[in-house]
């Protein structure tokens, strides 16, 4: 029997990580607008999380930051000249445009793509669709680079196949795995895939104060392209109440691992109907639903602490599952108390590990936002390209690379500095060598 494992591919915090408040509907991003960011600390926090996952015996991978500022987009906006002229002129003309093309948002790889592993697909291949991220301009420029990186790591062929990001702009808005859950008995067994959307393409969703980024039509396209098995696909709408409270992605209020679904009671409009449908699709495999009551954790605290934006993992040698939580959960009284109660309850979740990913959290990205899950067989892993799986040697190379190249202080005003762009491109060029990626950036093509 082929052994399957779930690998987590974390996005590395990029050199231009900053707080520009670009994401309308993302409470943390709005709140921290204009603050001082520390890209170096952010990248090292991310590497510490990866090291922790690795130390638990999990398979941990990494996805590189994107080239920022993105000069190709600035050229598309009509700026011409040398790199330095483009940066200086664009910043002078429009600081907000510069903030958009300089955002390090590609770190949140839960939005990089939707992945359906081989046990779920009728052709027995693992399917990837990079998310178009059409809802937010600063993220809508991520897909081409994401696609090149994924194709390099998971070569197209008998094992892996890659689809184009969806066209159709916001009408087929696709936010990737942050709105996707997979339930299964074991990672290698046939799964049920749950797609979560915020609205439908041609609807004016009057009940939404904030954007419903992902459409039901996009879910259907991805499920079809991925050749998912009949009866093993479910779709559900996010509760507008959750979106309006700042849960711009479903993974702010829900997380799953294997046969466990951990979610807030306001994540969906009708939890009972959803859990019934999931159980029906799972057949003989009994699901464990851990639904958190608003009376224990108000929605506002769930969004503030990112309790559900944790990673839920099975660690060998530990009985039950482990939550990888952001430290903010321990600093929020209701969520701290809830986690203590949960661990003591005798349910499927028995451990809580806290990680400091504050630099990312201040832009609305918790532990789960920072990772893309890819279930791989041993043979799949052997067929991967590049050097993206974390081991001690790669960790130390990456820490040295971060310490050499990253600034420890960055404000939105710094983004117009042509020297910053130069530093970024030199560093990323070196990174493609460390990760053996070949040419994946526009400036390398
Ligand atoms: N899954 C977590 C994604 C967080 C991301 N934040 C941002 O893009 C903040 C960017 C800024 O404000 O500079 C977003 O909202 O898509």
From TrEMBL:
Catalyzes the hydrolysis of N(2)-succinylarginine into N(2)-succinylornithine, ammonia and CO(2). GO terms for molecular function: N-succinylarginine dihydrolase activity. The active site is at 175, 249, 369 (nucleophile). Pathway: Amino-acid degradation; L-arginine degradation via AST pathway; L-glutamate and succinate from L-arginine: step 2/5. SUPFAM superfamilies: Pentein. Belongs to the succinylarginine dihydrolase family. It is an enzyme of class 3 (hydrolase). Pfam families: AstB (PF04996). Its EC number is 3.5.3.23. Keywords: Arginine metabolism, Hydrolase. Gene3D superfamilies: Succinylarginine dihydrolase. One of its GO terms (biological process) is L-arginine catabolic process to L-glutamate. This is N-succinylarginine dihydrolase. Substrate binds at residues 20-29, 111, 138-139, 213, 251, 363. Homodimer.
């Amino acid at each position: 029997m082929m052994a399957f494992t779930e690998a987590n591919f974390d996005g590395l915090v990029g050199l231009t990580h900053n707080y520009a408040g670009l994401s309308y509907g993302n409470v943390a991003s709005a709140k921290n607008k204009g603050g001082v960011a520390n890209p170096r600390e952010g990248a090292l926090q991310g590497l510490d999380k990866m090291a922790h996952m690795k130390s638990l015996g999990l398979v941990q991978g990494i996805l590189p930051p994107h080239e920022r500022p993105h000069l190709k987009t600035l050229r598309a906006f009509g700026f011409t000249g040398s790199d330095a002229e483009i940066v200086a002129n664009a910043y002078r003309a429009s600081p907000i445009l510069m903030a958009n093309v300089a955002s390090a948002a590609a770190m949140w790889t839960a939005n990089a793509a939707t992945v359906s592993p081989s046990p779920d697909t009728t052709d027995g291949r693992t399917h990837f669709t990079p998310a178009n991220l059409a809802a937010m301009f600063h993220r809508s420029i991520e897909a081409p680079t994401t696609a090149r990186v994924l194709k390099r790591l998971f070569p197209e062929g008998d094992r892996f196949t890659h689809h184009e990001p969806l066209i159709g702009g916001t009408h087929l808005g696709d936010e990737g795995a942050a709105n996707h859950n997979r339930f299964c008995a074991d990672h290698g067994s046939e799964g049920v895939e749950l797609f979560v959307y915020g609205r439908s393409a041609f609807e004016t969703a009057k009940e939404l104060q904030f954007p419903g980024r992902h459409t039901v039509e996009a879910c259907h396209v991805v499920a079809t392209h991925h050749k998912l098995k009949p009866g093993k696909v479910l779709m559900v709408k996010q509760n507008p109440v959750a979106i309006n409270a700042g849960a711009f992605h479903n993974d702010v209020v829900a997380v799953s691992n294997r046969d466990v679904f951990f979610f807030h009671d306001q994540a969906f409009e009708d939890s009972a109907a959803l859990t019934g449908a999931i159980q029906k699709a799972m057949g003989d495999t009994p699901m464990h639903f851990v639904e958190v009551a608003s009376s224990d954790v108000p929605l506002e605290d769930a969004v503030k602490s990112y309790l559900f934006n944790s990673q839920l993992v099975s660690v060998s040698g530990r009985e039950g599952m482990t939550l990888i939580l952001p430290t903010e959960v321990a600093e929020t009284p209701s969520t701290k108390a809830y986690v203590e109660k949960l661990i003591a309850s005798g349910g499927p979740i028995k451990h809580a590990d806290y990680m400091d990913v504050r630099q990312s959290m201040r832009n609305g990205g918790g532990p789960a936002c920072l990772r893309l899950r890819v279930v791989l067989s041993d043979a799949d892993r052997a067929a991967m390209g590049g050097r993206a799986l974390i081991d001690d040697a790669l960790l130390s190379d990456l820490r040295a690379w971060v310490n050499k190249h990253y600034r420890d202080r960055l404000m939105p005003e710094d983004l117009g500095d042509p020297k910053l762009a130069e530093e970024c491109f030199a560093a990323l060029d070196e990174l493609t060598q460390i990760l053996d990626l070949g040419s994946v950036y526009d400036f390398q093509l």
